[in-house]
Amino acid sequence: MWLIDPIDGTANYARGIPHYCVSIGYLEHGVPTVARAARPQSRLALFRRARRRRLARRRALAVSPCDDLGAATVECGWSTRRSTADYLALIARVMGAGCAIRRVGSGALGLVDVAAGRSEAYCELHINAWDCAAGILLVREAGGYTNDFFAGEGLTKGNPLIATNHALCAKLADLIGIPIEG
């Protein structure tokens, strides 16, 4: 199954903010196997792609080695499918642990940033499959970890998502409340 988001970061796009992308993921038997994220608006367009278990692509992508929550940057995505109170509580927990917080409006690019080592984690209490299918594979192929997003109704109704590196996965999973798989 192909999962395509022609404009991930729609609010940014609508406002002329150049932080959006095209995200394409392919699932085989519920497992992400091909991924591509492209920023067509950039002169230095970001093209990230991966195929499951293709180690050659790992050279281009590598998650951050940061093992200190106090030095970590965590992007916290936001969805109207969860309450503002839930997100404020999430941000309070993450900031309370000493992490820097950011939110830039594109879940797919947030995951690309984790895969490229520009941030240590991405989390969202609810995200749709088309927003994250490509990014999940990119993070995993870059040596990172995610939760089992496609479990249950993740494909059709969305799920919570966390993506991070090995050094922080247990700490962040506990802090955010989303279990991570290897």
Description:
The chain has helices at residues 10-14, 84-96, 107-115, 129-141, 154-157, 166-176, and strands at 2-8, 21-28, 31-38, 47-51, 73-76, 100-102, 121-127, 145-146, 159-164. With 182 residues, it is α+β, with helices and mostly antiparallel strands. The chain has one domain (1-182): D-Maltodextrin-Binding Protein, domain 2. It has a five-stranded mixed β-sheet, with helices on both faces. The protein has a four-stranded antiparallel β-sheet with strand order 1-2-3-4, with helices on one face. α3 runs parallel beside α4. The longest helix is centred in the middle third of the chain and has 13 residues, at 84-96. The chain is globular, with a radius of gyration of 15 Å. The chain starts with a strand and ends in a 6-residue tail after the last helix.
Blueprint (SSEs and pairs):
Layout: E1 2-8, H1 10-14, E2 21-28, E3 31-38, E4 47-51, E5 73-76, H2 84-96, E6 100-102, H3 107-115, E7 121-127, H4 129-141, E8 145-146, H5 154-157, E9 159-164, H6 166-176
Parallel strand pairs: 5-6, 5-7
Antiparallel strand pairs: 1-2, 2-3, 3-4, 7-9, 8-9
What tags apply to this protein structure?
182 residues, alpha+beta, D-Maltodextrin-Binding Protein, domain 2, four-stranded antiparallel sheet, 6 helices, globular
